[in-house]
Amino acid sequence: MTQVVIYGWYDNELGSYTNMLGDLTMSVADKMV
Amino acid sequence: MRLGINGLGRIGKLSLWHHAARKRFEGIVVNIGREVGTGLQDLAAAIEKDSTYGRLSNYLYGHKGGRVIENLSDTDGTMTIDGLPVKVLRESRNPREIKWQENGVRLVVDTTGAFTDPTTDADALRGSLRGHMVGGAEKVLLSAPFKIKDKGMSMPGDAITTILGINEAEYNPDWHSLISAASCTTTCLAYMVKPLLDHLGADRFLSASMVTVHAATGSQQVLDRLPKTGATDHRKNRSIMNNIILTTTGAARALPLVIPEMKHIGFMAESVRVPTSTGSLTILVLNIQDEVNSPLKRGHINRVFAEFAAHSRYLEYTEEQNVSSDITSPSAGTTLPPNWWTCP
Hints:
The structure holds two protein chains of two kinds. Chain A is of the alpha+beta class. In chain A, 52% of the residues lie in helices and 27% in strands. Chain A has one helix at residues 14-30; one strand at residues 2-10. Chain A is elongated and about 50 Å long. Chain B is an alpha/beta fold. In chain B, the strands form four sheets. Chain B has a nine-stranded mixed sheet, covered by helices on one side. The radius of gyration of chain B is 21 Å and the shape is globular. In chain B, 40% of the residues are buried. The model of chain B is unreliable at 333-344 (pLDDT under 50). Classes of the chains: A alpha+beta, B alpha/beta. At the A-B interface, β1 and α1 of A face α1, β8, α5, β12 and β15 of B.
């Protein structure tokens, strides 16, 4: 067994989350008839 | 199409910034459900200035940015943000009473954090996510994980949790009307797990644990306050300015909603809040079964992430020695991937 440690940085407000939420919002809108 | 945004807290305000920059929608309708300050000019000032990211004009145009919020009408609740028409609704905080249809809104993003249960009836007295559909919305996005309060209830068929680049293909516009974008921590975690899962297979994942070292959020107290009646976790009432505060996270529990293979893998998760305004770190520990005579090496793991990141819009691999302020994104003009990885 190998133990792996991984580090993930994220901007919990604008840079990561809101940008992805905004892209998801636009993606959902694109699929609305 | 006009977009509706319910709530103008941290995510609601920054969503407004995001869409003011992208201009995918012909207009934005923001529901606040109350007056702000002494009039619309006070709301405009709160939208323009941000203690974490600076001014909206700088976000849009850098240091040359000038006035971007104009044409204010307090009577109509209207303004333009960088030319984009924005209407502000101030009448009701209950989703079923918000006049989305009357204002040409078919798609709503609820950022209040108050309506997270997809099983709650649209006519619930204290409001519900589904109530937006009474007001005329056809699709409702939630900027938080779903939380089903009644443990006897299951996820409704029209609700889905989706993260771009992870399981977006699961979204079916004919079926799904309530869409959770998960949490920021679940999103980060999903991007930490998926590359290895795709490469190694779920059978080799023996167990996992994670901790998120998380910036403060609006739910925390600036200075110590008395706990609410019946509150059991008194740490939530302690000052975030002076403390490292242990709390909980639902990220590991939510992960199987977007990566079902993780459902049967033991996963412990902890969360620590620290006195920074944004920028968080997830530390993930995985116990992985080795193949015979072929133990995993650091270089192998790093290459898996580097190769995944090379084809991902939302993941960046780096071996730079970053601190949290290095990974926040202040500019709309720079398309920075949202997650940064390092295996030092």
